Amino acid sequence: MEEIFSSLAKDFVDETQPLTQEVGALLLKLEEVWRAGGNGKSLLRGVRGGLHTIKGNAAMMGLSDIERVAHALEDVCPKVSDEPPRDPGGLVQLLIEGCDLLGALVKSAASGDGETGRADAFVARAAAAEVSLREAKAPSNGGEVAQETGAANASVAAAVEGNDRRGSARIADEDVDELLELAGETIVGQTELLRMHGRFARGQFEVGDVASMDRLLVDLGRTTRHLRDRLLRVRLAPIATLFGRFGRYVRDLARERGQAIELAIEGGDTAVDRAIISRLYEPLVHIVRNAVAHGIESADERQAAGKPAGARILLSARMREGRVDVRIADDGRGLDLLAIAAKADAQGIDTSDFSEREMQRLIFRAGFSTAKEVTNLAGRGVGLDVVAGAVQGLGGSIDVRSTRGQGTVFVLDLPVTVSLQKALIFGVDSETFAVPTGFILDTIEIQEKDLQEINRVLLASWRGDFVRGIDAGRLLGCQGLAQAWARPYAIILHAGNNRGALLVDWLSGVQEIVVKPLDDMFAACRMMGGATILAQGRVVPILDCMEVARRISKALMPERAVEEKAEAGYHVF
Amino acid sequence: MSSDAEGAGARHESTGDKAEPLLAFADALLAEAGREHSDVPGDVRQFVTFILHDREYGIPILQCREIVRVSAITRVPEAPAHVRGVVNLRGHIVPAVDTRSCLGLGSVPTTARSRLIVVEVAGRQFALIVDRVKRILRVAMSAIEPVTEGAAPSGATGVARVGDGVIHLMDAARVLREGESAVGSNARGKEA
Questions:
Q1: What is the pLDDT of residues A86-122, one digit of tens each?
Q2: Is the pLDDT of residue A412 over 90?
Q3: What global pTM score does this model have?
Q4: What ipTM was estimated for this complex?
Q5: CB-based contact (8 Å) between B1 and chain A?
Q6: Which of A75, A477, A478, B23 has the fewest CB atoms found within 10 Å of its own CB?
Q7: How far apart are CA A188 and CA B189, in angstroms?
Q8: Candidates A337, A350, A357, partner chain B, best to mutate (most B CBs within 10 A)
Q9: How far apart are CA A338 and CA B186, in angstroms?
């Protein structure tokens, strides 16, 4: 047992020590870039990626000193999205010292000599520095912290700081106490597990170990679930906070038209994720504006049709089967199917065998605004297709029901909470995929000269080093003829112990996506971590980076490629 | 007012089949089947029938949720051969199953007449890609003949004779299972 541990420790040192040196080198470059006024995003990404891996490696080995120092460094290290610090000197100095300490701690890990004292001292310094950094930043972007971190203590800290700005939440003191207590319980459980792990690693077993571990895991499981549930509740807010914003809006619209429009609200106390509430405002504005511009008739028209002159718009929400049903209803003229048919005709869509429902749903297609005249209420270049995309992007769906002369109802079916993840969208051949940003070290432009093939291994040069690469089209089985050499971009992935370059055709921005699981039919698709719906309703598969990085680390160029290159007159070595 | 909304939906479904051809009719029937099956006399079964390779097949209307046009199908790398990919069904990501390859008929590209029959079996939703949708078939239980070995595709649960045509009655879950047993489909391929 002792031997196994020491060989694991050796692996750990071999793997982690170069990382500490690499992070140190990146930090020096970062300081230069910052001093020159650059933002050094890719360097920063490298630093954060390196620290994260060191922390993960140390946690797996139960080396809590290293883990704590790496964690403290991550806390003080600016986020990739942050503005570069104005005076980087002190911060970089602290980071470099921490990095040196990590190097020393890693080196001593093999011998088993702890330096808990030094680690404690550094963690305390880093914590002090982080507080002062945060205070310095708080007026400008204190709220951002809440959106970015999943860690319980960080969100609590941000929430306590919180105010009414977007991305922050108010929490009652007793809730904070309860959350802290739960967090404390998980730490106690984890410490106990670590202690047992240390004992097992030394080959010491006691009677009843299995039973006490069972008990520990059950307790820990219950506590963490409880913690998550409580945190989720913190994220909920009554939808009235969203609906309430429409009172003024509808009144202004009504005044512009010189017509009374009553806004009614039902189910305002329905609790929904704040992330959903903040992203639902724009789509609702659009639907309400549409209702007023296209749906509601003039007062004369309404009276001729035997309706009251004043129109009515209803916003309602209710829970249904664990989801939220949001409706926006108006009592206007209803959808004009003839106008929709004409529009479809103009776009070359054959609607001869469309059902009424299918006709109505056409309004969610791109370019289907049917306003007779462009008023300042409608025709602002945003269509209902964008609204549908936004709703689907939140993991929801949208539908419309309308009866001529009686009104239109938009029905939104939404989840109560969403887990939004940041992902980079890329394309290869004619297909589009998403990669979670947590696994991306860097994205670079790449040329043929940056790639070489040695013994059927494709190597891409990156920051003066080489990483194994693979053509994304081949890895993902796309139907294209292009090869690795022709791809203009590389995504450098880092997952587990593997690192690799994915060669792709184009990169699009990073965006927040809702991860949806794939059906069991796709169980064999190990490289897929789910799918998401982008704006315009496009379904895009999400890569499982652990598996992709593992495949890259084993990938060989096809033999055929060597022959082709030889035929093309290349030197083959 | 929200009850008005539901009223609006219901009214539409009863008037939708007035002049519209098949799809509206199917829509209305599906809605009806979803609401109350008791309308249909006990010994009459309803099937949505579709065409694959010039032959007519039917699946129970109670398994069908919806019939939609084929929109963009996103391929999923390393998916089994009988699954063409996934589609966005108003915010739900639903697998699109290549019905032809499930039944060993050879995959073909979709056309303007191709449809997705969205089915739900045991709480699981997926879409069957078919060459085209033909009709809603009402057939008395007594008129459904058992499958004769070798004469019907595997996965068939019965045979209905309409005029001089033969309609193979299928079960959506069994169609999917046929596709999953790749060995079976290979064997059929060799026989053919």
A1: 677 778 888 888 888 888 888 887 666 666 778 888 8
A2: yes
A3: 0.56
A4: 0.76
A5: yes
A6: A477
A7: 61
A8: A357
A9: 50
Mutate to test the interface with B, among A337, A351, A355 (most CBs of B within 10 A): A355
CA atoms of B97 and B126, how far apart (whole Å)? 7
Residue A511: name the closest of A427, A421, A451 by CA: A421
B120 chain-A contacts, CB cut-off 8 A: none
Q: Is the pLDDT of residue A485 over 90?
A: no
Residue A502: pLDDT band (50, 70, 90) is: very high
Is B179 in contact with B83 (CB distance < 8 Å)?
A: yes
Structure-token pair, residue B173:
């879950």
Measured CA to CA, the distance from residue B97 to residue B115 in angstroms comes to 12
Look at the block and give the residue holding tokens 């969208």.
A425
CB contact under 8 A, B5 and A312: no
Burial zone of A22 (CB within 10 Å; 0-12 exposed, 13-18 middle, 19+ buried)? middle
| Cross-strand pairs, A344 | none
Contact B78 A538 (CB under 8 A): no
Tens of pLDDT along A347-361? 888 888 888 888 888
Tokens representing residue B172 in the block = 């959506």
Interhelix angle A2-35/A41-61, rounded to 10 degrees, is 160
* pLDDT class of A16 with cuts at 50, 70, 90: confident
